[in-house]
Amino acid sequence: MGWISIFKRLQLTREVETMTSEELVKYKSASAKYFSDNRTSLAKAQKAKNTEKIELINNRVAEREQKLALVNKKLGINPK
Predict the structure, then answer these.
(1) What is the torsion angle, in degrees rounded to the nearest 10, for the CA atoms of residue 44, residue 59, residue 33 and residue 79?
(2) Where does the pLDDT of residue 2 fall: very low under 50, low under 70, confident under 90, or very high at 90 and above?
(3) CB 71 within 8 A of CB 12
(4) pLDDT band at 5 (very low <50, low <70, confident <90, very high)
(5) Rg of the chain's alpha carbons, rounded to an integer?
(6) CA–CA separation, 3 and 58 (whole Å)
(7) In the 3-class helix/strand/coil scheme, how is the chain assigned residue by residue?
(8) How far is CA 80 from its chain centroid?
(9) Residue 30 CA: distances (Å) to CA of 13, 36, 71
(10) Residue 25's Cα: distance from chain center in Å?
(11) What tens digit of pLDDT does each residue of 10-68 get?
């Protein structure tokens, strides 16, 4: 998991706090496809040895993981 600044974490927390229950569930549901798509993109970037793209994808995934953890917490879902 990539490093996320305290300011970004605060921004994500605020975003999640303003989401409705419907939005939280939709975000959680969409995350599986998001991670799958990014794994595919990451594999292509690694094959092409595109370090900028690899870093960009890893940062996006780390941010999504952080926000998803906040969403799960708000929904009362404990990670495995």
Answers:
(1) 130
(2) very low
(3) no
(4) confident
(5) 14
(6) 10
(7) CCCCCHHHHHHHHHHHHCCCHHHHHHHHHHHHHHHHHHHHHHHHHHHCCCHHHHHHHHHHHHHHHHHHHHHHHHHCCCCC
(8) 17
(9) 18, 10, 12
(10) 14
(11) 999 999 999 999 999 999 999 999 999 999 999 999 999 999 999 999 999 999 999 99
Question: In the block, which residue shows the tokens 């305290």?
Answer: 6
CB atoms within 10 A of CB 65: 15
Contact 1, 57 (CB under 8 A): no
- At 45, the amino acid letter reads A
> Would you place residue 78 in the very low, low, confident or very high pLDDT band (cuts 50, 70, 90)?
confident
Give the residue among 65, 64, 57, 61 at the shortest CA–CA distance from 41. 57
